[in-house]
Specification:
The protein is α/β, with parallel strands linked by helices. Helix content is 41%, strand content 16%. A hairpin with a 2-residue loop joins β4 and β5.
Length: 259
Amino acid sequence: MEAAVRNYWTSVRGRLARESARLLCRRPFRINTQVAVISFSFDDFPRSALLAGGRILGRYGARGTYYASLGLMGKQGPPGPMFLLEDLRRLLDQGHDLGCHTFGHCHSLNTPPAAFERSVIENQLALGQLLPGASFRTLAYPISPPRPGTKRRAGRHFLCCRGGGRFQAFNDGVADLNCLSAFFLEKSRDNPDAVKALIDRNVSARGWLIFATHDVSDSPSPYGCTPRFFEDVVHYAVNSGARILPVAQACEELTRKRG
């Protein structure tokens, strides 16, 4: 009985978090583009995301966005071995986009907004020490939807902030630069037709679809997908007629078209 009550309140708390992340502390902008946009992003930045996922994107002339928590560099995580310093350099040399995931991979709901912001700043400072002149221009919230106060604070530091996969949608009409919707590929890795249908809907709506995942491996973690599946999605996205842009570049171009 106690477990059922706990599960109920956990579910209620999750729904409230998603709704508050969707409705409060927004930074609205209208997506107004003649050609749909698709971005590919990777959270936590396991090495395979660049070594396998980046190689696939490169074959199609595309670039991705890698959300890094520098406190995880060189460590082992649930999606496998995390990035190394040489991977950060390789990523930038190849024209990919580097995004912030907080220094300590902070839980976006459980972390107080002020502590979350400190971890954002710590990540920025650490990057400046490792790669002078480099900077994070966008953020992805780790683990969960953010608190409204976290949205407000994070929005001060970035062009845009991307939400997690709980929304599983593309952005169209009036979107929120403080919590953009994303679609996590691993949630549909056994259903490629659903992913292709989403790409088609995004093209028809002339929206902005942000794909996300973690590792790209022949034996993926629960948070990743296989190279074959990922390439199938990239191939379909490229052939859909949508523009394939990293998150920061897409945000810059779409906000210039605002109104």
